[in-house]
Amino acid sequence: xxxxxxxxxxxxxxxxxxxxxxxxxxxxxxxxxxxxxxxxxxxxxxxxxxxxxxxxxxxxxxxxxxxxxxxxxxxxxxxxxxxxxxxxxxxxxxxxxxxxxxxxxxxxxxxxxxxxxxxxxxxxxxxxxxxxxxxxxxxxxxxxxxxxxxxxxxxxxxxxxxxxxxxxxxxxxxxxxxxxxxxxxxxxxxxxxxxxxxxxxxxxxxxxxxxxxxxxxxxxxxxxxxxxxxxxxxxxxxxxxxxxxxxxxxxxxxxxxxxxxxxxxxxxxxxxxxxxxxxxxxxxxxxxxxxxxxxxxxxxxxxxxxxxxxxxxxxxxxxxxxxxxxxxxxxxxxxxxxxxxxxxxxxxxxxxxxxxxxxxxxxxxxxxxxxxxxxxxxxxxxxxxxxxxxxxxxxxxxxxxxxxxxxxxxxxxxxxxxxxxxxxxxxxxxxxxxxxxxxxxxxxxxxxxxxxxxxxxxxxxxxxxxxxxxxxxxxxxxxxxxxxxxxx
Length: 488
What we know:
Blueprint: E1 2-4, E2 13-19, E3 22-23, E4 29-35, E5 40-47, E6 55-63, E7 67-77, H1 103-121, E8 144-150, H2 157-165, E9 176-180, E10 188-190, H3 200-214, E11 229-236, E12 242-248, H4 256-265, E13 269-276, E14 289-294, E15 298-302, E16 305-309, H5 319-334, E17 342-346, H6 352-357, E18 363-368, H7 371-383, E19 389-393, H8 396-399, H9 402-408, E20 413-416, H10 425-434, E21 438-443, H11 446-455, E22 460-468, E23 478-485
Parallel strand pairs: 5-7, 12-13, 17-18, 17-20, 18-19, 20-21
Antiparallel strand pairs: 1-2, 2-6, 3-4, 4-5, 6-7, 8-9, 8-11, 9-10, 11-12, 13-14, 15-16, 21-23, 22-23
Helix pairs in contact: 1-11
């Protein structure tokens, strides 16, 4: 039944005893509503923090012509699939939305997401999609996290009520070191625990916050742009070695005591660094990062390859699953190769895939927009004694031209791993002009991947599809597709 809540703005409806039936994009679930009096037939309502089988009362928060969005007012009957979240911040910080789904169910829905996107968006003919490669670690799998300092922690509804009743409660006015509330640039949730990295990152983050408060270091205010401590980044490697970067807003900030505390208390930190950011945004890609103690990098290994990872380097955040992903890309790239192929690696980043396949190729040409990443790619090639790689920096649609192909050779294989937005149409057209025998398309967004694959469908057929789960507890999924040139 559909009821209206007259107290709500725009007279948005309350939906009673609704059964959640599926999983949608952005980590949301959905139900379908039919109400003849309102001329609604199978209208989809999207709801966060639900799982299929939940029976709920919903408050609609947005109503459009073809869909609605809502939040849960009451969980009437939990689904048999539902499990208890591990994290105390679940439902508030905005991350790990699928914690309430058993991991087997997460994998099932991610597999379905791949199928739906390729068939409904791309309208593509597919071979049998291989079962998704699940992660051996479903918690503590990340090798990088970033946190934000804020002069006042964001308060939940319950904490706001408590503050109103106890306005002198200093604990409710303390600064925060944590994650931004979704879609709120100036609101930061204090994070006491996060289960995405090993436990030591909780110890380091909480130690930094406690030291800063007790020693009078001020936390940043995103609106007034005042305060000393701004951001903190942590990285780790397979050996458990750590990199910590403290970002300060004021170059006069006395951070020596904080840095000395971290060095003495946490011997696992082999790279302790800081950066001064006086800009109006949080990005540090164009700023120098200075070493306070140790070295300016940590090393990562994959098979017998070494990768130097600096504070600005891109490296897949799930180390173990990155290896599985790259093995799939390498297998697809080399499939049916009688000779060592010439490979183009587009959006190469720090050259991890390029270096991973180089020993099986005659030559690998990597192209990447970020110049610092290209510098890292060249260093990593040198570290591993690879002399058959070359890396170029620039916008993909400007660099990858017919003249470029004439200069560097027509590729036998193109590997492309674009950002979530997918590939520019000019890049797709140049790939089609290059006419490689095989294309390996690695994607973190199956929707834009499906769009791009449809543009290549006249010239290439999909030979294999392999989903890989890089981010347990979230809706995100990677997908690798092998394309083979059609014989006309």
